[in-house]
Amino acid sequence: xxxxxxxxxxxxxxxxxxxxxxxxxxxxxxxxxxxxxxxxxxxxxxxxxxxxxxxxxxxxxxxxxxxxxxxxxxxxxxxxxxxxxxxxxxxxxxxxxxxxxx
Amino acid sequence: xxxxxxxxxxxxxxxxxxxxxxxxxxxxxxxxxxxxxxxxxxxxxxxxxxxxxxxxxxxxxxxxxxxxxxxxxxxxxxxxxxxxxxxxxxxxxxxxxxxxxxxxxxxxxxxxxxxxxxxxxxxxxxxxxxxxxxxxxxxxxxxxxxxxxxxxxxxxxxxxxxxxxxxxxxxxxxxx
Lengths: 102, 176
What we know:
The complex is a heterodimer of chains A (102) and B (176). In chain A, 75% of the residues lie in helices and 0% in strands. With 102 residues, chain A is mainly α. Chain B has 6 helices and no strands. Chain B starts with a helix and ends in an 8-residue tail after the last helix. The mean pLDDT of chain B is 86.
């Protein structure tokens, strides 16, 4: 394997995950919270693929593809919720969205 | 020579990965954040290629940068580019706590991985030529991981139906 070892990829993945977690915690706009969530999922994917390369088995890549599908489904449901909330003329601010009442 | 080129590509991809990741979190306008996410996903695809995951890299560009981000852009265009700027003004207790929590998560992951697998990370396994190719992924998906493949289709169906229901429901007070 030319280039940096698997540990370098794992460190990248950890920094990326922490960036995403920071974004989820600090931002108030649900749209950007969802974008930061995507970053966290992708950091997990990078770790999975790095470990797949390390062990030489393809199952890690299958897992990463499954995570990708779940991320797409999560984005659909999350964006649908955001659109439904904005239809009710509620401020798009996760600090103000404190009640769920149909 | 190959070693040198791979290092250069890796460093460029890593720098663009981290800067675009930070840009997604810090841009005030969600539209710019979504555009920065495209750069993030593209540099991840480069790293996947370096890790011999060709099919996953292609799926990353097609599914993520192609489909998911476009959906984000549509919703952001529909809702308008309003957003917050949490770092404007003096730093609050909440932003300080967010920094501490994110740093704690990073340290925890590093410590756990180093303790559990630190000595096994030095020598990666030998791989054959077809590793990560669409043919091998297909064999694994329809062989060992058939259940995951089938469950995935149900998850996508449920998400699609849920998206339609959430998107088409009109609040009661507006119905007439």
